[in-house]
Design brief:
It contains 34 helices and ten strands. By secondary structure, it is α/β, with parallel strands linked by helices.
């Protein structure tokens, strides 16, 4: 296409001449960059003062080419039109994008105005998404230095997975270094990048749907553009890409995805995608640029000066978490009372089908096993909803990304990246999606370490246990603090365990990642409630399936076998209940366990409940309810709390929470750990290792506490 152009050239080889010409390797370099980034100056620096100027075929956009001879290479330099992005909003953007896609330059050099780093890196993120061989030239580096900007070039280069060269085009500085890197990049060829801009859970889910569909329905387009880049452009409603899609099914899915995302975020997907790209840039700059002058999102930057402050950041995070837990009890307690009243009414209604005083296995199964077991878990649904609502607001506002960034400083010290904290945050909802979320971590050592410690994050399944125990043993004004303390203990233990694992089983360097910092947004009401409901529904579904099944099994285990009539003669109601329990399967297992758990302050009743919690943590509450409600039909959590308070001390109550926090995760978590690690060895190490850790720590706390309390 360009063979008819006369090319001028520069030569770094002074002996180059007609008599010593050799066959040279050819490299095509495309110069991209924002207007006023100094791109033309760099072009002149590489090719000399004279270039051939023409137009791109079919358009009036100016095209410049030049030739540079360097170390036996013939480098054709094409100066692409100056653009801020590679969307389809202007002819210049289309020309630049189409040249890269259609002509396949060997290397793309993105000229960055180093004094205006954030705005200029937006184009770089799009080039990274195109997965082209990329070099970043930080031009005007002298101006950036005068403005007080200091770049950690090595760190930033690793984060962006592209070599960076500092240049001053108008003074000819960095020319040789840039040409050296261009040659090296050409020799390396196209690489598969491990880092990518993450657009968030909702957008990534829709991109995955579109990507899978276009790979099958639009194979030629997918091969030309790459399925992910194509999916992103379709979701951005890029007209130049959309017009080439022939499958109506693909277009329908894209339209449905756009509508769904707009419902959640209240804005078009392309706006959210742009925000996430800037979040990627902001995160990279926070980690590798000092005194960065951010010109975009001024209000976000002002807030971040406080939120991300090295002194204030962590206390603010801890305070916000405390307020979340305080809200969970303050608002949740009255709602929980209404829910409890409903299940008490349901139990009374079902029991009313039998004559007063009449007992039967079916009545006991329905009232004590199903309503008592499942209802005993669902009664805490208001607390679950409030916790998930608060977390959804923090996530959608952009704060949770900052929380991960704040924790990054701590995580680096234990050999992990702040990005590992994101799956840990998800672990507050459920360990299963949290373990699956570790897929964002490319380094296997970091991923395995994160998977192993995720169960130490207090999942929503543990909250019913806390909601039962805390009001039973602690004054109302201490409820929020005790809950906050339990969550913080889990985080602290996760950090300590991760440090030990990285120092022993998973030794090695920490792979750098970009920590995205999206701009602050006001969460939409609908989007927030959707996120809250998705997590709450998983909890309810588990109550209606797994917990229901386990409750029935536990009811049977606590009801059978029945002792002989002669052994029950003369016993009062409470003695009768204990005799029946002791004779049952659960009672016998609990009695066998009791010597081992007695040093923790636990008896056989708690032991049987802990066994049930292996199926699902919430079952602990259901099991305790079943243990104490046999023969009773109208007792709710208040009566259960009263019995616990009469039987155990506050120290034992705290140790129950501590043990259930640390001990082996549920069976479902064990299974997902096996699937994600690819080994039963790691899953069983997690299972037994955490149980042993829970035993040792609870033993120490109870024994020391007993000494001080007397």
């Amino acid at each position: 296409m360009y063979s008819s152009l006369r090319l001028t050239f520069c030569s770094e080889n002074k002996n180059y001449g007609k008599n010593n010409r050799i066959m040279e390797k050819k490299i095509t370099v495309a110069l991209a960059g924002n207007p006023n980034s100094g791109k033309t100056t760099i072009f002149n620096m590489l090719t000399g003062a004279r270039q051939h100027v023409g137009n791109y075929p079919g358009v009036t956009v100016e095209k410049k080419e030049g030739l540079c001879k360097y170390k036996g290479y013939e480098i054709t330099v094409v100066d692409l039109p100056g653009t801020y992005s590679l969307s389809a909003y202007s002819i210049e953007e289309l020309v630049a994008r189409n040249f890269i896609i259609d002509e396949h330059p060997d290397v793309v050099v993105d000229i960055i105005d180093a004094s205006n780093i954030e705005r200029n890196l937006y184009l770089a993120t799009q080039l990274i998404e195109m997965n082209v061989p990329l070099v970043l030239a930080f031009n005007m580096s002298d101006i950036a230095e005068r403005r007080g900007l200091r770049f950690d070039i090595e760190q930033l280069s690793m984060l962006l997975e592209a070599p960076i060269v500092s240049t001053v085009g108008n003074k000819g500085k960095g020319k040789v270094e840039l040409l050296d890197v261009v040659v090296e990049t050409d020799q390396e060829g196209k690489i598969e990048r491990t880092h990518k801009v993450s657009y968030g859970e909702e957008i990534e889910a829709e991109l995955a749907r579109i990507e899978e569909l276009v790979a099958g329905k639009e194979r030629l387009l997918s091969e030309k553009y790459g399925s992910r880049w194509l999916a992103v452009k379709l979701l951005e409603q890029d007209s130049d890409v959309t017009v080439n899609v022939h499958s109506q099914e693909v277009l329908d899915v894209v339209a449905a995805s756009s509508k769904h995302l707009k419902t959640i975020f209240g804005e078009e997907p392309e706006i959210i995608i742009a925000d996430r790209r800037y979040g990627f840039i902001s995160g990279a700059c926070e980690e590798s640029v000092k005194s960065s002058v951010e010109l975009r999102h001024t209000s976000s930057d002002v807030v971040d000066k406080v939120i991300l402050n090295r002194v204030l950041g962590l206390p603010i995070f801890l305070l916000l978490m405390y307020l979340v837990f305080k809200l969970t009890f303050w608002v949740g307690d009255p709602l929980m009372g209404w829910t409890e009243g409903f299940f008490n009414w349901a139990a009374d209604t079902v029991a009313g089908f039998w004559p007063v005083g009449a007992e039967s296995a079916l009545k006991s199964l329905l009232v004590d096993g199903i309503i008592g077991g499942v209802g005993g878990v669902l009664v805490f649904l208001p607390n679950i909803l409030l916790l998930f609502l608060a977390i959804a607001i923090l996530e959608d506002s952009g704060y949770m990304a900052r929380a991960a960034f704040i924790m990054d400083r701590i995580m680096h010290k234990i050999g992990l990246h702040g990005k590992s904290f994101i799956p840990m945050l998800i672990g507050f909802g459920c360990s299963i999606p949290a373990i699956m979320a570790t897929r964002v971590l490319e380094n296997r050592r970091s991923r395995l370490t994160t998977i192993m410690v995720i169960p130490l994050m207090s999942c929503g399944a543990r909250l019913p246990i806390y909601a039962l125990i805390i009001p039973a043993f602690f004054a109302r004004q201490w409820h929020g603090f005790i809950l906050w303390l339990i969550y913080m203990i889990g985080i602290a233990l996760a950090i300590i365990c991760a440090k030990l694992l990285r120092a022993t089983l998973f030794k090695g360097e920490t792979t750098p990642f970009v920590m995205e910092l999206p701009p602050y947004r006001i969460p939409t009401v609908k989007g927030t409630f959707i996120h809250m409901w998705e997590r709450a529904w998983l909890y309810m579904k588990k109550a209606g399936t797994i917990i229901l099944a386990i409750s029935i099994v536990l009811w049977a285990a606590t009801s059978y076998p029945k002792p002989g009539e002669e052994s029950l003669a003369g016993l009062d109601k409470e003695q009768l209940q204990e005799a029946e329990l002791t004779h049952s399967v659960a009672g016998r297992v609990g009695k066998v366990l009791e010597p081992a758990i007695r040093p923790l302050g636990f008896d056989w009743r708690i032991g049987t409940a802990l066994i049930g919690a292996l199926g699902a943590k919430e079952v602990f509450v259901a099991q305790m309810g079943i243990v104490y409600s046999l023969g009773e039909i109208d007792e709710g959590s208040e009566a259960l709390r009263a019995k616990l308070q009469a039987e155990y001390s506050p120290l034992v109550g705290f140790c129950i929470m501590l043990f259930t926090l640390i001990s082996a995760p549920c069976i479902a978590t064990l299974a997902i750990c096996r699937r994600e690690t690819g080994s039963w060895g790691w899953a069983l190490l997690q299972f037994f290792g955490l149980t042993l850790l829970a035993y040792v720590i609870t033993l120490i706390v109870f024994q020391l506490g007993s000494l001080f309390i007397g």
